[in-house]
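User: Let's play a game. I give you a shape written as tokens, and you guess the letters that built it. Ready? Here's round one.
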């Protein structure tokens, strides 16, 4: 990655001859982007427009390094050098069309977490990050809703426009070089949409940010705010150049504007009409003519530009060179200067000013009208180096805090686990009430301990898995932006669930222990608790592994009970642990039920003596007799606890590997 600042005249991002193909079942290989080239400069606000299916999102994703599948060729340079994925993704802020955020966090918490995780601790103190959040809240007009929850499905939160501004804010609290927005105005009313564009423009100016957005049907006022337009039709470039000159460009080709809104006029011009064969043929011809015209025009511009460069260099080597229409830089607040080249030299002669536009070196003074914190910090500077990543511990601490807030605010999870523990405590305690030392108590003890073991799995694994899977989109978004390390994510997430699960379960275990009158012995009580903690740890690990292994929540809700039900067969309760079919016997060693159940049973039966009535056909005299019969004394209690912890760790490791390699998006890079 280039680290040198090449000065304000260099494009921050340039792309040449981008072609993107996908394979479709019906049509074979289909080209989505055709030979797209262009550049963007710091401080520019660029809009990609075109009718639906024109390839806007695809182009945006290609430039952002977020396209998956298919075949991509061409060349993309960031600050004149090949992009390095790890650094580039941390210098790019991507506002996706779907606002993926945690519904349970407030607006301020959302922005603060983004700032704390993504701004470098070396450069910013915590107070700086907080004040930046305040500034962004103010700039995005979100101060009045800063304590409101984001909200989501089934939960009222901020409005759609506010939500969109929060997702923009999450990116703006960081220090990106490039801001990319996919349809930032979709679903918003016209004034909110205009506000979003206005704010984005303001930010682009203040921070010298290069901003690229796709937009549907902007109003005339919005079009006027853009510095540069990229017009696409069927994946081909129809125009790329100054927004202010787009209308005259088309007028010069014999297409005067027929609509008061230029955006509608452009879309009408570029859309293929499928109403009839004749209409389709005509519109396709028109679009192809526009595409060809632009390609030719660009070639002529390049030649002209080269000549200008030569003369200009001779005249004044220190001044900026003229650039092509496609690569022209629109300096903020700068009036374009009419130059000598116009393809037709007609009445609209000035429309191709951008073809060889002179850029005033004094353009920087145009930033002067903006005065606020961010401007003072970064205006005029463009950072080409990714900030250093924050330390593991600090990162994990911030994630832990966020995850803890999320877990404790998730009332269905909290009340679900507490409620389930209370119900189990009552049923376990009173079904197996005050167990004695007779023969039926042997069966009851076995039943109580097996039931306890099972209760430590299903009611933990399924809700936790659901919570992880429903927030996986946010994880993927944050991961794509290189927000934190995956190890920090795992550590923080698991740690945030553990107290939430262990506390109600200790309460349940203690209650059931006392009511059922298991062996009253302090050592046995605490050994039982350790065994309980080990299976809960393993259960949490299992839910993480399942969440990462299966993509769909519905499928996970089928696979999980089935696999747990199958594993239950090897616990040593339904099938004798020593007499399972030899070929399947090894499965008990990867069975969390086996270790937990064996631990509980040995702990309870060890040292117990039972009474035998004369009429009993089978009589267990001691707890050891029971253990021998069930084959549950192969491993010691300590080994059982340890092996469940090891199994839990293996599940976590599996989840980590799955996330790192299987769930990892395979982006195409140029
Ligand atoms: N991976 C893919 N496989 C098959 N077709 C694809 C793929 N990606 C994009 N396309 C097709 O490419 C075309 C352009 O898609 P894209 O999403 O870029 O359009 P768009 O201009 O953003 O449209 P909209 O305005 O509706 O969002 C569409 O016809 C789409 O179906
Ligand atoms: Mg799109």
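Assistant: Ready! My guess for every position:
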């Amino acid at each position: 990655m280039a680290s040198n600042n090449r000065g304000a005249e260099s494009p921050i991002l340039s792309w040449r001859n981008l072609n993107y193909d996908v394979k479709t079942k019906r049509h074979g290989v289909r080209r989505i982007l055709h030979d797209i080239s262009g550049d963007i400069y710091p401080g520019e606000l660029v809009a990609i427009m075109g009718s639906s299916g024109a390839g806007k999102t695809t182009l945006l994703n290609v430039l952002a390094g977020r396209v998956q599948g298919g075949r991509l060729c061409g060349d993309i340079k960031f600050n004149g050098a090949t992009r390095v994925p790890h650094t580039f993704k941390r210098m790019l802020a991507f506002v996706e069309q779907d606002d993926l955020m945690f519904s349970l966090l407030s607006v301020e918490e959302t922005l603060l977490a983004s700032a704390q995780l993504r701004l470098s601790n070396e450069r910013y103190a915590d107070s700086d990050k907080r004040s930046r959040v305040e500034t962004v809240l103010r700039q995005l007009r979100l101060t009045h809703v800063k304590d409101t929850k984001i909200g989501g499905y089934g939960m009222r939160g901020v409005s759609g426009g506010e939500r969109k501004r929060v997702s923009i804010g999450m990116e703006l609290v960081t220090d990106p070089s490039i801001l990319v927005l996919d349809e930032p105005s979709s679903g918003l009313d016209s004034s909110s949409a205009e506000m979003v564009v206005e704010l984005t423009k303001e930010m682009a100016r203040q921070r010298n940010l290069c901003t690229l957005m796709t937009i549907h049907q902007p109003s005339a006022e919005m079009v006027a705010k853009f510095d540069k337009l990229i017009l696409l039709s069927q994946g081909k470039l129809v125009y790329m150049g100054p927004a202010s000159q787009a209308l005259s460009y088309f007028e010069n080709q014999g297409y005067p504007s027929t609509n008061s809104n230029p955006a509608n006029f452009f879309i009408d011009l570029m859309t293929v009409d499928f109403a009839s064969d004749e209409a389709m043929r005509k519109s396709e011809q028109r679009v192809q003519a526009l595409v060809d015209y632009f390609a030719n025009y660009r070639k002529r511009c390049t030649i002209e530009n080269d000549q200008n460069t030569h003369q200009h260099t001779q005249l004044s080597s220190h001044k900026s060179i003229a650039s092509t229409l496609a690569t022209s830089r629109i300096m903020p607040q700068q009036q374009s200067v009419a130059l000598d080249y116009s393809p037709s030299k007609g009445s609209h002669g000035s429309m191709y000013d951008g073809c060889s536009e002179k850029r005033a070196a004094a353009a920087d003074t145009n930033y002067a009208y903006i005065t606020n914190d961010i401007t003072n910090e970064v205006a005029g500077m463009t950072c080409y180096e990714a900030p250093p990543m924050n330390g593991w511990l600090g990162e994990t601490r911030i994630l832990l805090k966020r995850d803890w807030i999320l877990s404790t605010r998730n009332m269905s999870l909290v009340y679900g686990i507490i409620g389930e523990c209370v119900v189990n405590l009552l049923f376990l305690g009173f079904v197996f009430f005050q167990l004695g030392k007779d023969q039926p108590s042997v069966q009851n003890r076995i039943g109580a301990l097996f039931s306890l073991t099972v209760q430590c799995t299903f009611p933990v694994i399924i809700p936790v898995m659901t919570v992880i899977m429903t927030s996986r989109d946010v994880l993927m978004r944050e991961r794509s932006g290189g927000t934190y390390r995956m190890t920090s994510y795992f550590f923080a997430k698991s740690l945030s669930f553990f107290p939430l699960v262990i506390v109600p379960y200790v309460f349940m275990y203690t209650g059931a222990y006392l009511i059922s009158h298991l062996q009253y012995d302090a050592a046995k009580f605490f050994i039982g608790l350790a065994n309980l903690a080990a299976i809960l740890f393993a259960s949490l690990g299992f839910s993480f592994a399942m969440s990462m292994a299966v993509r769909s929540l519905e499928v996970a809700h089928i696979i999980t009970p089935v696999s747990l039900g199958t594993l239950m067969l090897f616990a040593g309760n339904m099938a004798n642990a020593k007499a399972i079919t030899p070929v399947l016997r090894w499965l008990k060693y990867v069975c969390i039920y086996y270790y937990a159940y064996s631990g509980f049973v040995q702990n309870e039966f060890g040292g117990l003596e039972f009474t035998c009535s004369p009429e009993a056909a089978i009589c267990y005299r001691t707890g050891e007799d029971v253990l021998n019969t069930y084959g549950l004394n192969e491993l010691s209690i300590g080994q059982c606890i340890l092996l469940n912890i090891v199994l839990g760790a293996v599940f976590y490791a599996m989840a980590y590997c799955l996330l790192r390699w299987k769930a990892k998006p395979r982006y195409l890079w140029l």
